[in-house]
Write a structure and sequence with these properties.
The protein is α+β, with helices and mostly antiparallel strands and 192 residues long. The chain contains four helices and nine strands. It has one domain. The protein has a nine-stranded antiparallel β-sheet, covered by helices on one side. α3 packs antiparallel against α4. Helices cover 27% and strands 43% of the residues.
Length: 192
């Protein structure tokens, strides 16, 4: 009987000292925003190429001069890391972007667009993702990034064609003067 009284006393003591409003005042810290999983897309694309024996070609163009070379999987994966880095940067700051959706019947796709709410606070200005109308898988992904390097404005445009190729274009301008442009196109399964 003494044990039952002790247990009841302990239960009443804990219950009386608990503030019922405390649980309601706890802020929600979980991420509730649902954005397209860009990092997962790039990881899957890199794994797709890594598991196959595609010949991988890189075409570089610097200020109008072209050259091409065959690259290794390690070089390909290093290039892919640049795309993954952009997706990580976006993921960390996704609260600074707004999402819009457009259905294009002519291309049988949806376009998800993420636009910076304040371009002064984000390097990535916008991201466009073209999704297949039927299976909602990404067909193409575009990222536009603008940042300063000293007194030079650098604009980078990343483009990825699912299971086929990608391209990185970089423009540099110093003040009102055009400085340089560079483009790297990497192809592993694109016959176009």
């Amino acid at each position: 009987m003494k044990r039952i009284c002790c247990v009841c006393f302990l239960y009443l003591t804990v219950a009386c000292n608990t503030d019922p409003h405390q649980a309601k005042a706890t802020p929600v810290t979980g991420d509730t925003a649902h954005y397209y999983a860009i990092a997962d897309f790039f990881r899957e694309q890199l794994a797709y190429v890594d598991l196959r024996n595609f010949p991988i070609y890189q075409i570089n163009q610097l200020n109008g001069k072209k050259d091409s070379v065959m690259i290794s999987k390690d070089q390909f994966l290093a290039w892919g890391a640049a795309f993954t880095a952009q997706s990580v940067l976006f993921q960390k700051n996704k609260q600074l972007y707004t999402e819009s959706v457009f259905r294009d019947l002519s291309t049988q796709s949806y376009t998800l667009t993420y636009t910076s709410l304040d371009p002064q606070k984000t390097d990535i200005q916008h991201i466009d993702i073209l999704l297949n109308d039927e299976n909602h898988l990404a067909k193409r992904l575009f990222i536009k990034k603008v940042y300063m390097s000293g007194d030079t404005t650098v604009t980078e445009q990343y483009s990825w064609k699912a299971y086929k190729s990608f391209q990185v274009t970089r423009f540099k301008t110093a003040g009102a003067m055009f400085s340089s442009s560079a483009q790297s196109y990497v192809n592993w399964n694109d016959t176009q």
